[in-house]
Write the C-alpha cells for this entry.
Amino acid sequence: MAAGEAVAHADGRLRCPWCGTDPLYMAYHDHEWGVPERDSRALFEKLLLDGFQAGLAWITILRKRENFRRAFDGFEPDVIARYDAARVEALMQDAGIVRNRAKIEGAVLSARAYLALQEAGTSFSDLMWEAVGGAPQVNRPRHLSDIPAETPASRALSKRLKGLGFKFCGPTIVYAAMQACGLVDDHLADCHCAHKG
C-alpha cells in the first residue's frame, strides 16, 4: 500500500491514516470528522478548538476536549462573550486546557463576534454553510497528499470571519474546521467512512 492511503485496522476497516490506532482518535474519525454539522453552537465550538489546535496535534485537543467544554461553559457564546480579565486569568491557570493567552482572549472576541452576527440576523451555521453553497463538498481524495491545507473557499470564509471580528481563523484553521464539521468530506476514497449512506 502506498504511503498516505487508507490503512487497515484490527476491526477489518480501512481508515484514513491520520487517526492512527488510538481508540479516541478512531472514534472521532468514524463518527464526527466529515459528518455534516448544522448546529451553530457546535460549529462555533469546533472552530474555537481548531484555533486552539494551531501548532499542536489534533489528538492533544481531542484528549482535552471535555476539559475545554468544562472550562469554557459548554462553548456557549453568550457566556464566553462576558468573560472578563479575571476569568481569562483563571483559564490561564487551568492545566486541563491549552493555556495560551492570545487564544483564550481570541475565543472571547470570537464569541462577541458570534453574538453580533446573530443580532444582525445571520446564524453562525448559515454563515459557515454559505462557504460551500449549503451542501457538503465531497472530495474523495486517493492519498493524504491530495488534501490541501486550505482552499479558495476556506480563504474566502477566513476573510469574512476576520472581517466580522473572529480570531484565530486563518484559512488553514478554517479548512480544518470545514473538514471537522462536514462542510467538506475529505475521507480517502478507500476509507470505510467514504461509503456511508
Observations:
- The first helix runs from residue 23 to 31.
- The mean pLDDT is 96.
- Strands lie at 7-8, 14-15, 137-138, 184-185.
